[in-house]
Each structure stands twice: as structure tokens, then as C-alpha cells.
Amino acid sequence: MAIKKNNFSYAIKKLWNDNDEGESESFSKYIIPEENISANATDVTDVKDISEIDAVEAASEPYYKPTVQKSYEKPENENMQITSISSSTYIDGSIRSTTDINISGNVNGNVETTKNIRISGTIIGDVKCSDLTMIDASLQGNVKTKGHMSVNRDSIIIGDVDANELVLNGKLKGNLCTSGKVELQEDAVIFGNINAASIYIAEGAVVQGHIDTTYLSDNENDTVFPEQIVIS
């Protein structure tokens, strides 16, 4: 920054005189006396007190500084729609939806959606959805899920279950069929047959029924077991 003689001080005085005479008087304390500036001053290092120059520059800044407008980022869940049935609600009839469903109340009818269902209430009817979560829930009816199914310790199902995979720590009275893995945790109880690609049974789980973990056809069975064992 270069300052020559009294040009800068004159410009500041002129600016404030044009706006308001009273303000120019209060601002005069920021004007650097001419005798404090060397005759050949060309840089701020020639000024005896650089802090005075800083004060003049700060005071000469515009009153208004435009703020930078921030772009609005839309929350990921802003368009998420959820159908909720509160604990104090009783519905006598079927429910069909294309949104997630949370059921804390009681439903006497079938419940079907293309999305996920979370149950912490009671349903008397069949349930169809993508993923199903049961927490302290009761369900009497058949269940069909395309994805993951989770049943906690204090939940009970009376009916058949067809799921992609299941983690069970509650009670199930009915047949279970999964195309993926079944995990029976320590408090799980099943009265019914199990057909799954694979199964894990924790110590303490109870199973009363037939367990089948194969999807082999008759032709494939021949490749696993020969007709008889031959001593060569």
C-alpha cells in the first residue's frame, strides 16, 4: 500500500464531509497528521505508527458487507413418508401402502406394503412387506417378507413365515421357510418345521420340528450319495 503526502487523509476527509459533517469530526481522530508522514513516503513502512494506518483502513471499509448465501441442502429423509399407527389406535380392516409402516396399536386385518414394517403392537392378519422388525409384538397370521426379518425376545408369531433371512429370539408356532440364513438366538422357541439354506442355533434355543437345510433336487441327491458303498 502506498501513501503520498496528505492525499489519503484528504480523500478520507472528503468522503466523510460529503456524508455528514458531524461524523467527519468524530472521524478526524483517525486522520494521520501530515507531519507524521515522511515527504517521500511510498510504503506503509515509512509511517511512524502503522497501527494508525490500520485504523484508517478499517474505518473506511463499507458499512454493509453482503453475506454469502448458502445453498439449501435437502435432508435425505425429507421426502420419506411413514404411515404410523399409535398405541391408542385400533383399526378393524386391512391396510395397504407404498410407504414404511410403524404399528404400535392394534390391527384386525391384513397389512401389506412394498416398503418396511415395524411392529410393536398387535396384528391379527397376514403381513407382507420388504423388511420386518418385531419388538414386543404379537402377530397371528402368515408372514411373507422379501428381505430381512427380525423378531426380539418378547415377540410372538402364530402362523407360517416365509422370509429371505430371519433372526429370531422370540416365539414362533408355525413352519419357517427361508431362502437364506436362519439365526435362532438363545431365547428362541419354534414349534414347526424349518426349511432354510443355512441355520445357526444358539445354546438355549428350542426347536420342535423337522429341520431341512437342503435345496437339492432328486438328480442332485444322486451326486451326493451313491446307491451303495462298494469296497474296492
Descriptive account of the structure:
- There is one protein chain.
- With 232 residues, the protein is an alpha/beta fold.
- The protein has two domains: 7-59, no CATH class; 82-220, no CATH class.
- Helix content is 16%, strand content 33%.
- The protein has four helices and 24 strands.
- It has helices at residues 7-19, 21-27, 50-59, 218-224; strands at residues 82-85, 90-92, 95-97, 100-103, 106-108, 111-113, 117-119, 122-124, 127-129, 132-134, 138-140, 143-145, 148-151, 156-158, 161-163, 165-168, 171-173, 176-178, 181-184, 189-191, 194-195, 198-201, 206-208, 211-212.
- The strands form three sheets. An eight-stranded parallel sheet has the order 1-4-7-10-13-16-19-22, with no helix packed on it.
- Helix 1 (7-19) runs antiparallel to helix 2.
- It is elongated and about 115 Å long.
- The termini are far apart.
- The model is unreliable at 1-5 and 44-48 (pLDDT under 50).
List the helices and strands and how they pair.
Blueprint: H1 7-19, H2 21-27, H3 50-59, E1 82-85, E2 90-92, E3 95-97, E4 100-103, E5 106-108, E6 111-113, E7 117-119, E8 122-124, E9 127-129, E10 132-134, E11 138-140, E12 143-145, E13 148-151, E14 156-158, E15 161-163, E16 165-168, E17 171-173, E18 176-178, E19 181-184, E20 189-191, E21 194-195, E22 198-201, E23 206-208, E24 211-212, H4 218-224
Parallel strand pairs: 1-4, 2-5, 3-6, 4-7, 5-8, 6-9, 7-10, 8-11, 9-12, 10-13, 11-14, 12-15, 13-16, 14-17, 15-18, 16-19, 17-20, 18-21, 19-22, 20-23, 21-24
Helix pairs in contact: 1-2
